[in-house]
Amino acid sequence: MKTPSLPTGKTRWIAIAVVVIALGGILAFWLLRDRGNPDVLRLYGNVDIREVELAFRQSGRLTDMAFDEGDTITAGAVMAQLDATPYREKLAAAEAELQAAQAQLDKLHRGNRPQEIAQVREQVRQAQASATEAERNFKRQRTLLESGASSQRAADAARATRDQSAAKLAAAQAALALASAGFRSEDIAAGKARVAAAAAALSQARTAVADATLIAPSNGIVIARVREPGSMVASGMPVYSLSLRDPVYLRAYVGEADLGRIASGTKVRVHTDSSATVYHGQIGFISPRAEFTPKTVETADLRTDLVYRLRVVVSDADEGLRQGMPVTLDVDTAGTPARRH
Fold first, then answer.
1. Which of 20, 28, 256, 334 is most buried (most C-beta within 10 Å)?
2. d(CA 19, CA 197)
3. Is the predicted pLDDT of residue 7 greater than 90, yes or no?
4. Which helix (H) or strand (E) holds 206?
5. Per residue in 109-118, pLDDT tens?
6. What is the CA radius of gyration of the chain?
7. CA-based nearest residue to 75, from 52, 59, 48, 58
8. Strands, E, within 59-160: which ranges?
9. Which of 293, 315, 316 is nearest to 304 (CA)?
10. Using an 8 Å Cβ cutoff, are 241 and 69 in contact?
């Protein structure tokens, strides 16, 4: 019985060559399978993931940075924190101002207390008694003056005292009427305005406290951590750069000759050079303005042609699609209006 012989070096190289040729044939078939299909339009573009710079609306000192570059973020996550002590103090002052303004308005609505009105009424009675006594004294002095038992000077003094007492009585009666009527409508309107201003200031203070916390607006990946705890930041100064993951856009360009073959909503298959994964999406936007093809996606056929930019929304994107990555798009033109007609 013969022992099977091992393949020689030449045989091994031939086998490797056969495998390479087979893989090349499969790859060529995959790349060229749709070129002869009139219902498939092949375009080239790039991944265009949106990025956002996150910043505080208030200025202050950073106390916490919760994430590092490369971390995955979910919407609503607390990403950074400012020292909120100054803003909490302003909030407490605003709450006190509102309470004071509201108390003053309540006082205007209720008017004077019953004890205050009773006090003014007692002053009226005292003034009435003084005025009555002054009137009797004046009459007595006038009678005495007519009989010659009193001087003109005494009669004039009695008359002055009577007039003063009458004036004090009138003033007391007016004060009683004012106390009983309460505050003027203009005073109440001004009190309401002060309460509204204090409430607005309180709302601003609460917003400032809330703005001391930086919240992630959407799901994404941190691509830059710009500041560190302890740093002083101004309003609007970026502290993070965030790459948004949903939705993922592709930017591609179509020539004028093929413009009528596509429309918003047209289905698209997406391929990358780094993976065999096929992504799916649809055209979401076609620019109404022509432009020269950018150098990043130009081809020999479109090198000097005017093209139209379009945006594709990918429905099943994953981590395999990264910012700026070149992609190949196979557009299904069979269902577009131009093809149906």
1. 334
2. 81
3. no
4. helix 185-210
5. 776 667 777 7
6. 45
7. 52
8. 60-65, 72-73, 78-82
9. 293
10. no
pTM to 2 decimal places: 0.60
Helix axis angle, 114-147 relative to 152-181, nearest 10°?
A: 160
What is the three-class DSSP state of 80? strand
Q: What is the pLDDT averaged over residues 235-257?
A: 90
CATH class of 51-83+211-244: mainly beta
Coil, strand or helix at 150:
coil
- Lookup: tokens for 189: 């309107």
Specify the higher pLDDT residue, 3 or 285. 285
CATH number of 40-48+246-296+303-332: 2.40.30.170
pLDDT at 112: 67
Q: Structure tokens of 32?
A: 């060229």
C-beta of residue 65 within 8 angstroms of C-beta of residue 228: yes
Strands across the sheet containing 238-244: 51-55, 238-244, 220-225, 72-73
232-233 sheet: strands from edge to edge? 213-215, 78-82, 60-65, 232-233
Picking from 8-22, 111-125, 165-179, 299-313, which range would have the lowest pLDDT averaged per residue? 8-22
CA separation for the pair 23, 17 (Å, rounded): 10
Total length of the chain: 341
Question: Which stretch of DSSP H or E encloses residue 170?
Answer: helix 152-181
Confidence at residue 311, expressed as pLDDT on a 0 to 100 scale: 93
For range 157-180, the mean pLDDT: 82
185: which residues sit within 8 A by CB, 6+ positions away? Answer: none
Tokens of 268: 């698209």
**Element (DSSP H or E) covering residue 307:** strand 306-314
* pLDDT, tens digit, 9 for 90 and up, residues 306-325: 888 999 999 988 888 888 89
Burial of 24 (0-12, 13-18, 19+ CB in 10 A): exposed
- The pair of structure tokens assigned to 182 is 């309460």
